[in-house]
Structures are given as C-alpha cells and as structure tokens.
Write a structure and sequence with these properties.
Elements (H helix, E strand, L loop, with lengths): L23 H5 L8 H8 L3 H6 L4 H7 L2 H8 L2 H18 L11 E4 L15 H15 L4 E6 L7 E4 L5 E4 L11 E2 L9 E6 L2 E12 L2 E7 L8 H4 L10 H21 L6 E5 L6 H12 L4 H11 E4 L10 E2 L1 H15 L3 H6 L12 E2 H7 L3 E4 L2 H10 L15 E2 L6 H4 L2 H10 L11 H4 L7 H29 L4 H7 L8 E6 L15 H8 L6 E6 L7 H14 L8 E4 L4 H10 L2 E4 L11 H6 L4 E5 L2 H10 L2 E3 L9 H22 L7 H17 L2 H45 L3 E5 L13 E8 L8 E10 L5 E9 L1 E5 L2 E8 L7 E9 L15 E2 L4
Helix pairs in contact: 2-6, 7-28, 9-10, 10-11, 11-28, 19-20, 19-23
C-alpha cells in the first residue's frame, strides 16, 4: 500500500510575475482568453508545449512555468508589445456599463457550463449552450449572472478497451489550479450557505469565475463541514449517481443557489431556468415571499411566476426528471411545514393531473407552473413541446399552448477557426469582429476568391488529420496495442480525401450507426479510388446507456476492418477540443436523429460557420434553415417511424454517390466551383443568423425584459397587484363551474361574399362575474376534411350589453380569405396578460356546436 502524508497546513503559491507583466494573473482568471485570440496568444507564446500539456489552462500553466521563462518574457520587447495589446483588448472587453437604474439583473441557472475544455463541468450540448449564452451576454454587456454546480469530477473521460467498449474514468478537478476563486464574506472568510436535507444541514461553498463581463457562481458541497460522504458527494459528478443523488443536486442548485444569491446581496429581477434541473428555485422564492412579505401561498406563487423564465430542451418525456411521491415527501415534508403549506399543494405544482396522487413529480411541470415565460429552442421543438405539455392547458388548441421558441445559436468567436478569421480580416469590413451579427457584413464573403477560401479549409483539414493521428497513436499506446496497430495509427486518414464528420452524444435516437446499415454499399463509397471518402466519428454514451455503448463498439469494430482502417476513425474522449477540431476540419457534417427528437442541435451550426456543409435530417435548427444553407436534407418533414431507418440510410448513400461526393471532386480550374458556391451561401446565412448574440438578444427582448417589467409591477404598493390578483383568481375559480354559454353564434344563410361583415354574438351567464373578468374570443379558420378548424385567427369580442347575470358579447368580423370557413366561440378568465404568459389551467370553455 502506498504511504500518504497528510499536510498540517495548506497554502497556495502563486507565480512571482515580473513587474512588466504583472497583469498576466488577472488575465488568466477571466475566461475571456477562451474566445479572444490575442489574450489566448499571450499565454501560448510563453511556452506552446506547456500550454498544450496544461490543457489550455493559464492558471495551471503560470504555476508551472520556470521563473526564468517569466523573466525572459518580461524583458522581451516583442512579448511586451503583445502584452500591451492584450491588456487593451481585455480592458475594452471587460469594461462594464453602469448597472441599470431600474435594478434589472438576470440570474441564469444551469446544471452545466461548457466554457472551455480545462473546466470539465459540462457533458454536451446543454452545457455548451450555457457557456455560449454567458459569453454572448458578456459581448453585449447584459446585466446577467450565472449559477451552477462545481463538480469535483465533472463528466467522465472516455477510454476504449481493446474490444471497443467504452470505459469511464473520473479524474478529480483541483479547483485551486483552475481559473476560479472562492467567494468571500464580509469577514473575509469563504462564503458558505446551507440547505437542510433529511440527514441534516448541508454546507455549500460558493466559487466564482469571470466570463468577460459576466460572473458565474458555482456551488460546491465537497468541503470539510459536510461530515457525511453522501453530502460531500452531491457535487461529485455531473449526471452521476442514482435518483436520490439527482434530487439532492437539484435541491442544492435551485434552493442553494437562491440562498447563495441572497448571501451575496444580489437581487435578481429575472430568474432563467435553463432546463428543469433548477426548478426548485421557485419553491424557495415562494418560501421567502411568504416569510418576508407575508404573502399567502397563492400570492407568493403569483409573485414568483412574474419573474421566471423556463427553457425546455427536452423533446421526449423520458428526458425529464421525475421523482416519486415517497422521495418528494422524504425531502420536502419538513420544508412544507416550514413554509406552512400542505404537501399536496407542493406536489400539485409538479403534476400534469393534480388529482392523480400516483403521478410522479415532474421538474419540467414545476418549471412550467411557476414561470410566466416558457420557450423551446427551435420552431419545430416548440410544436413538439406544445404537444408534450398539452395536458397542462387541455382546453386550448395544440398550437395555442403558451410555449414560444427562441432558436439556439453558437458563440461564433469561440468556434470560428483562426485562419478563417484572418481571411475575413482581409475581405470583410474592418470592424466585422464587432458587427458579426449583422447580415450585411456577410454578403462580402462572396467576394473572397474560391481558391483562398478553399486553401484555408485544406489547411484546417491537414491539421485535423494530424490531430486524429496523434490521438489514435496515444490511444494505441495506452491500450498496449500491437506494433502494427501503433504504426497504422500514424497513417489513418488522407488529408486530400473527402471527409465526413459525426460527433455527438451516443444516445440511440441520434442513430449513430445509421450510416453502417448497408456495409457493402458504404464500402463502395469509401473505397472509390477516384473519389475516396473517409469518416471521423466521436461521441460518448451515458455510463448507464448500454445500447449507446453498443453503438460505439459497433463503430469501433467497423473502423478495424482491414479494408477500412485508413478511412474510418473513432476518436476517443469527445470533448470541446475534439469537437472544435472536427467542426473546423471536415468537409461535410452528418446529422441523422429521429425527426422531432433533436430539440435544436448546434454542432451543425458550428461546422457551417467554418465552411462545412450539412447533410441532415430536417430536425431542430436545420428544419428552419435548410432551404438557405446550401446543404442537403435526408428525408422529408414527415413524423418519424421505424421503417424510415432503411429509407434514410438509402437516401444518405444516394446523395453521397450521386451528388455530394462528385460535386466535391469536380475540379474546374482545380477548384470545385459549385461546392464553393454552396460553402459561401452557408457562411453568408448561418454566421449571423445562428450566432448566439442573436439568440441572447431575443431572450432579452421577448422574455427577460417583459419578465423584469412584470416583476417591478408586482412589487409596487406592498405587492397590492399580486394580492388583488390572488383574490380575483379565487373568485373566478369559485364561480367558473357555473359560467355557461346561453347563446352562441349568429344565423348565416348561404354563402357570404368576400369582404362582407359577419356578425358574431355570444350571450354568457357569468355567474356573478363581471364582463371585465372574462375574455370572450372568436376563433375563425378554414375547415379541414375532418370538419375541424385549422389555420386559425383569434379575435376578442367586446361586451355590448348585460341583462342580470347574462352578458352579451358581439362583433362584426370580416374574413380576409375565401373558401370553406368556420368559427367557434370560447370564454376564459381575463388575466390582463399576454396569452403567452397564461398559467397552467383548464379554466376555459367552448361554446357548443349549433
């Protein structure tokens, strides 16, 4: 057994920086270097090999550099010139505008953040999106902060055994060599907050890191104050452990995150739940409003809803966290007692059917119930989400379920390859790096000579080939592979061959093995002597996803075929570094999930921004971009069924054989003109349209600003509007069963001429409510072959008369279309709100037919 020595004291040694470069440490502790080339170059220039060996972590690197290296840099006029320019850029990119006078502050909660590879607290797309959200908010100086968990081990590292099975490794993060620092309290001590679990108080340390102008706070339970191993292990690993670990993590993120904000004196006016993992924050909001403002439960719920934004990323019910009643009671019975509410009141917030006490508690439903603003992450995903959560608004047509969409984007400066950026410096407007979200800037891409653009991409592909060979060689040596296999690892791929990339999580719905459905046909494509093709594939399966692991093994075994080892490579340990090299270096990006099950997807956007064309199912973002991006679609826009697997595989082969590969190899004047025309079309459209700046601006204008305004109104006059609203809600609920249509519609004889007014009238017994308490609407549209309304428009009918408890609502409508039309009438509570913010409720009634 190894002998371990426990230190009696612990201290941190920081590098002694020469006076001339003393700000290097400040620059290292701000993740701006992860997307600002000149700041990153400052560290790479010190020692390129050590920069790579330290995993591109400047804090770790500065701690390892010999003092002589630092002294030499501090005396080198060339380095000092770069240092001055980097400091100027740093100051410009981190200088903040004064805080908004109205106190606007958005708190963005996410379970993972993908900022750069040296901070492995992300697993995939959700985390990368969260990191890009912070970076783009920094670029635009938005008043936003981030909240998340600081995982001791993060997500797993992937290695393959000799047979191709995924194995997981969990290296431990040393927080003191990462670009983050502990938050201090007023006494200068590490700030800690607590949450009470059935085992007792759990202590949470708060760390912070800088992302340009944005601060991200991360919560850590692996501290000495937590005596029990299960308490320390709450922030052990991302998406690890069992369902008990998951609920503990989400309590720490949601409730602990709210308490951390309070302890730091931060008072957000908007709370953004990025997926349902943080939805318990709404319970803490309710508790604090009831305690501090003396609101009732209903009043506190109304208040919390005003400021909450929920983004769902889940296109299938299986992706939602569900907790059974017993588990919820174990963790929240005491919490309910402290708040003074019934346990069933809490459970109702997380159930689609509040009367079914067997239904498990859904974190997504909790988020939907406690948020006024809800969005999906692409237009198609909005439709999928409306269908998934229709039961929360059962009386509404599917298309009116109040979930909007903001299509995802990616942070262009983080993903654009440097050589392409340098080419843009020559041909785009001089300030394009400041205005890259303006479509007009990108029209100038068409002026770049095809040959120059092609040569830039060829260089990136050569770099990718070298990267793959080095990774394959290291993997073979680690596995103690045969000398022949080690030798072959340095010969895989051809820098001149057409290269297809596929990199993503190996969930089964992404159909990673679809391309291998007809092996002989695929071999014929790959081994074409005149037009060779090669595949670079990467991805991880969740440790408990055995089918996903089987997919990986199948791909690995295929890559070892004696005829194909040069043409097919599976890259181990997919992470941001691997993803970046692939999206910048391949020629074609393949994406073939089951349609409707990819909420958005962003890897294809990253590839397109680097001059890579897409071959994709019409799903997520590609469904709304296909006609404009110059790529190719697999299949049509029909719903997925299992018999499509063979059809989609055949479509991929056909397109590769007959269009894509021949187009790439067509050489007119040594340049594939049609291919380059499509590349330029893709760059021109994708770069500004799917940049994350656009996405964050939409969040700000469509969700954050309205939520902030609602929050400010709710606080006025000792929450008088909220108190009135809660009383009004109670009055409406008590009367609603008795509200009924007495008369609906108007007699129409024969056809109506286009442009002629149609009188619409409804008489409704309001059961003691006033006309202002309700919203009466006419829904008009075409009648489909089944006799149902489609392509509808909604118009409000004003009250024109009242007779005792019956109110008359009437309006003339002028149809703006011809054909077979119809209308229906409905009445709902008038919440004095935009219909998109209506709460989850079945309080809506339709008139009878006739």
């Amino acid at each position: 057994m190894p002998f371990h020595i426990q230190p009696i004291r612990e201290f941190l040694v920081r590098p002694a920086l020469p006076e001339s470069i003393t700000r290097l440490s400040e620059l290292a502790y701000n993740f701006l270097w992860s997307w600002e080339p000149i700041v990153r170059a400052l560290f790479r220039r010190l020692d390129p090999q050590m920069w790579r060996d330290c995993g591109y972590n400047p804090v770790l690197m500065l701690g390892r550099l010999p003092q002589a290296t630092l002294q030499r840099a501090g005396n080198d006029p060339r380095y000092l010139s770069l240092y001055r320019m980097a400091c100027e850029t740093f100051d410009a990119r981190t200088r903040q505008a004064p805080p908004p006078a109205d106190g606007k502050l958005i708190a963005y909660f996410s379970a993972e953040y993908g900022l750069t590879e040296c901070l492995p607290v992300y697993s995939g797309g959700l985390g990368i999106l969260s990191g890009d959200h912070l970076k783009s908010s920094s670029d635009q100086d938005y008043p936003l902060i981030g909240l998340g968990l600081l995982y001791q081990q993060g997500y797993f590292r992937q290695v393959l055994n000799p047979d191709g099975w995924q194995q997981e490794r969990y290296p431990t993060n040393d927080f003191y060599t990462l670009p983050l620092l502990p938050v201090k309290d007023a006494a200068g001590q590490d700030l800690k907050v607590t949450v009470k679990l059935p085992t007792g108080n759990v202590y949470i340390q708060v760390w912070h890191l800088s992302v340009g102008r944005i601060t991200l706070y991360l919560l850590d339970t692996n501290i000495p104050e937590n005596v029990l191993p299960q308490d320390r292990d709450i922030t052990d690993s991302l998406y690890g452990g069992d369902i008990d670990t998951r609920i503990r993590q989400e309590i720490v993120l949601g409730i602990g995150g709210m308490r951390a904000l309070q302890a730091m004196g931060l008072k957000p006016t908007v709370f953004h739940m990025n997926e349902g993992h943080s939805a318990f924050l709404s319970l803490e909001q309710i508790r604090v409003f009831m305690r501090d403002q003396h609101l009732t439960f209903d009043e506190a719920l109304e208040t919390a809803r005003t400021s909450n934004v929920f983004t769902t990323h889940t296109p299938v019910p299986a992706g939602i966290d569900l907790f059974d009643t017993g588990l919820m009671y174990h963790y929240f019975s005491e919490y309910c007692g402290e708040v003074g509410i019934d346990f069933q009141q809490l459970m109702a917030l997380g159930r689609q059917n509040v009367f079914n006490r067997e239904e498990r508690f859904s974190m997504a439903v909790l988020a939907l119930n406690t948020s006024s603003f809800r969005n999906a992450v692409s237009r198609l995903h909005r439709q999928v989400s409306q269908e998934m959560f229709h039961d929360l608004w059962p009386q509404l047509p599917l298309w009116e379920v109040p979930i909007t969409s903001v299509t995802n984007g990616v942070h262009l400066p983080s993903w654009l390859n440097g050589e392409l950026g340098s080419l843009y410096d020559q041909y785009l407007q001089p300030d394009w790096r400041e205005r890259f979200n303006e479509p007009g800037i990108w029209e100038q891409v068409k002026e770049i000579p095809d040959e120059e653009l092609l040569e830039v991409h060829r260089r990136r592909k050569r770099r990718l080939v070298n990267f793959v060979r080095a990774r394959q060689n290291a993997s073979a040596l680690r596995r103690q592979a045969s000398a022949a296999e080690v030798r072959r690892s340095a010969e895989v791929l051809d820098p001149n061959a057409f290269t297809i990339g596929f990199a993503r999580r190996f969930a089964t719905y992404k159909r990673a093995t679809l391309l291998f459905r007809d092996v002989e046909r695929l071999k014929a494509i790959l081994l074409n002597k005149d037009m060779p093709v090669q595949l670079v594939i990467a991805g991880k399966a969740h440790p408990k996803d055995q089918p996903g692991k089987s997919f990986i093994r199948e791909v690995v075994q295929f890559s070892r075929d004696p005829d194909l080892w040069k043409h097919v490579v599976f890259l181990e340990d997919y992470d941001m570094k691997v993803g970046r090299e692939m999206v910048q270096g391949v020629d074609l990006w393949l994406n073939n999930p089951r349609r409707g099950e990819e909420a958005c997807g962003t890897s294809g956007m990253k590839a397109a921004m680097n001059g890579v064309l897409n071959l994709s199912i019409l799903d997520g973002w590609f469904d709304e971009a296909y006609e404009k991006v110059g790529g190719w679609a697999i299949g049509e826009r029909e719903p997925y069924s299992e018999d499509q697997d063979g059809l989609h595989a055949s479509a991929i082969y056909y397109l590769l054989e007959n269009e894509i590969v021949p187009m790439f190899y067509e050489r007119k004047e040594q340049t594939p003109r049609e291919w380059m025309r499509r590349v330029k079309q893709s760059l021109t459209y994708i770069s500004p349209t799917f940049d994350c700046r656009r996405m964050v601006r939409e969040y700000m204008s469509e969700l954050y600003d309205p939520a902030h305004s609602q929050h400010m109104r709710a606080q006025r006059d000792d929450y008088s509007l909220v108190r009135d609203k809660a009383r009004w809600n109670l009055k409406v609920r008590e009367a609603w069963d008795r509200v009924r249509f007495v008369e609906a519609g108007s007699d129409l004889a024969g056809a109506v001429l286009s442009g002629k007014a149609v009188p619409v009238r409804a008489a409704i017994d309001l059961a003691g409510l006033t006309p202002d308490d309700v919203r009466v609407e006419v829904v008009i549209g075409r009648i489909d072959s089944n006799g149902h309304l489609e392509d509808t428009e909604v118009s409000v009918l004003p009250a024109v008369e009242q007779r005792d408890s019956v109110a008359i609502f009437s309006k003339d409508i002028v149809p703006d279309r011809t054909g077979r039309l119809g209308y229906a009438l409905r009445v709902s509570p008038n919440h004095f709100e935009d219909p998109l913010t209506r709460p989850c409720s079945s309080l809506l009634k339709w008139s009878s037919v006739g």
